[in-house]
Amino acid sequence: MYNRPQSTLYESPLMLQFIELLPTLKPALRKVAEYILRDPLQAATMNIHELGASTDASTAAVHRFAKAAGFDGFIGLRHALLINLREWVSRAVDLREAMLDLDAGHFSLLQQVRQAKHNLDGVIDNNPPATFDAVVEAMESARRLYIIGFGNSFHLAGLLGAFLIPFGNDIAVISNDGGIDITAHRIAPITADDALLALSLPPYTRETVHLARYAKSKGARILALTDAPMSPLAALADHALYTPPTHPVLRNSKIALLSVIEALVAAIQLRHQPRIDLALDQANEAQIFMYGEDIPGYDVIADGR
After folding, report:
1. Are 260 and 225 within 8 A, CB to CB?
2. Does 171 lie in the same domain as 80?
3. 47 and 74 fall within a common domain
């Protein structure tokens, strides 16, 4: 199997096959499939013992998964991964070797930048331009845009909401302050004219999935920013953008997620630039009214440019 020209990582026939197979697998085999879908580049460079250890499964489970996927054991599976992902494998191998060269107990800025670049490359590999455009369109056309992100996505959800305020859209950032009862009350008014944008990286929070399921039951469009197709949000989403969170030290990296957030905001800003300029002028006027004088550079601070 080979990637079509200009196709993304998760559009390849092999990855689509694994995504379709995932719900039918038993727990041990599902662990193997989820790991491959979460980091197919790394999986392609592993032997059966490394893959088994990384997935908390046995080598027998890896072999059974390969059989379930239609291959003649692990060798056939690994060969398919290498061929199917050949245009990405060299980058993954280079990064892996660089990480193996780390001195014990030492992590450098160079390693961080290499890992960040790897994850950002993954954003391009994993997301078709049409999906990004569809998310932008759904965000802009929604009567009200609800944004949720709990756990390690909480602060980025708030940042996204703050970025969108100047555009004049009706934005509701749903936090879990006050407990799940208050959170449920905040999202209860959602309708089919609205959209829910959910952020979730591993470890996934149960509340995010439950609220997305509730919003979907009300007919709202579900947009997801998550790590991979095996995320529980991916199955609920009308459109999902994948942001690789791989990091050799931290539980997860948010570089890719932040980059996608900035791209979404920039795309929407270009559609609303006159309105944004007006909002900045009004904010500057309010500032002058409050303090009695213009503050040099305020417009630069206000729009972040």
Report:
1. yes
2. no
3. yes
pTM for the model? 0.69
Would you give the end-to-end CA distance of the chain in angstroms? 45
**Please, are residues 160 and 147 in contact by the beta-carbon 8 Å criterion?**
yes
Residue 289 and residue 305: Cα distance in Å, rounded?
23
Q: Write the DSSP assignment of 43-71 as a string of letters.
A: HTT--HHHHHHHTTS-HHHHHHHHHHTT-
In a domain, residue 118? The reply is no
Instruction: Evaluate whether 66 touches 110 at the Cβ level (below 8 Å).
Output: no
Q: For residue range 144-195, list pLDDT tens digits in order.
A: 999 999 988 999 999 999 999 877 679 999 987 777 788 888 999 999 999 9
- The residue assigned the tokens 């997301």 is 127
Neighbours of 176 (CB within 10 A): 19
For residue 27, the enclosing domain spans 9-87
The more confidently predicted of residues 43 and 284 is 43
Tally of structural domains, the chain:
3
Indicate if 136 and 232 belong to the same structural domain.
yes
Residue 92 one-letter amino acid: A
CA atoms of 221 and 7, how far apart (whole Å): 25
Q: Are residues 134 and 261 in the same domain?
A: yes
Tell me if 165 sits within 8 A of 208, measured CB to CB: no
Question: What CATH number is given to the structural domain containing 47?
Answer: 1.10.10.10
Query: 299 and 252: one domain?
Result: no
Angle at 166 between CA 165 and CA 171, to 5 degrees: 25
